[in-house]
Specification:
Protein name: Heme ABC exporter ATP-binding protein CcmA
Number of domains: 1
Shape: globular
Bound molecules: adenosine-5'-triphosphate
CATH topology: Rossmann fold
Pfam family, one: ABC_tran
CATH class: Alpha Beta
GO molecular function: ATP binding
Largest sheet: 5 strands, parallel
Number of strands: 9
Strand content: 15-25%
Oligomer: single chain
Keywords: ATP-binding, Cytochrome c-type biogenesis, Membrane, Nucleotide-binding, Translocase, Transport
């Protein structure tokens, strides 16, 4: 995957200014930078959730944005929100994403078996994050886009996360993650986004959010 000269305005502010990156099978990239630098914005662009104001994303040499449905099948996106349905049990939530695949590996990877039949609204913050990460595993997508994946996880769960990330790469998968803390990833490249010299007041642009004019 190759992203070239990605630029994004949020409100009046140029948040991403001609950012480029590339990633091959088995590789991982960490996005770092201060609050507001545009890490989440870049992940959303790579996920096809937000149109960049300039630049392109190539997948196997083809424009990834030309067919967003096809691109959606290539990526598993973990945002700050865990995207779980609170009224459903964990098993029900995971089944939605499993495409018929067995849930056992994902349940075991994040030690979730004892919570299988509990409604997700009863989960702690860390348990919800573990469930959301299990969902990522089940998506069976080559590219994982993870926004602060270890947020809320205890030390043991961070180790489990490290195992899962390593296995995904060994299977040829790719990972791009944002983080403010060290993540258990070996041989990882870094892309540091500089951020604004002085943080400006954001201009509400909810009206544009997700719009592909
Ligand atoms: N919905 C929005 N409307 C307008 N501006 C926004 C919106 N969401 C984010 N921004 C602005 O875009 C900029 C980049 O935000 P983004 O969330 O991508 O940063 P980040 O690097 O992920 O930050 P953090 O480390 O705090 O998670 C910030 O200046 C923020 O104020």
């Amino acid at each position: 995957m190759l992203a070239q000269d990605i630029s994004v305005f949020r409100g009046e502010r140029l948040v991403l200014d001609t950012v480029g990156l590339s990633l091959s099978s088995g590789e991982a990239l960490l996005l770092t930078g201060p609050n507001g630098a545009g890490k989440s914005t870049l992940l959303r662009v790579l996920a096809g959730l937000r149109k960049p104001d300039a630049g392109q994303l190539l997948w196997d040499g083809e424009n990834a944005f030309a067919d967003r449905t096809n691109h959606a099948h290539r990526i598993a996106y973990l945002g700050h929100q865990d995207a779980l349905k609170p009224g459903l049990t964990l098993i029900e939530n995971l089944t939605i994403f499993s495409h018929g695949a067995p849930l056992d590996e994902a349940l075991d990877a994040f030690e979730l078996r004892h919570l299988a039949d509990a409604p997700v609204r009863l989960f702690s913050a860390g348990q919800k994050r573990r469930a959301a990460l299990a969902r990522i595993m089940l998506a069976q997508a080559p590219l994982w886009l993870l926004d602060e994946p270890s947020l809320g996880l205890d030390v043991h769960s961070v180790e489990r996360l490290g195992d899962v990330l390593r296995r995904h790469r060994e299977d040829g998968g790719m990972i791009i993650a944002t983080t403010h803390v060290p993540l258990p990833l070996d041989n990882v490249r870094h892309l540091a986004l500089p951020g604004a010299p002085v943080e400006e007041e954001p201009v509400d642009e909810w009206a544009d959010e997700g719009a592909w004019a």
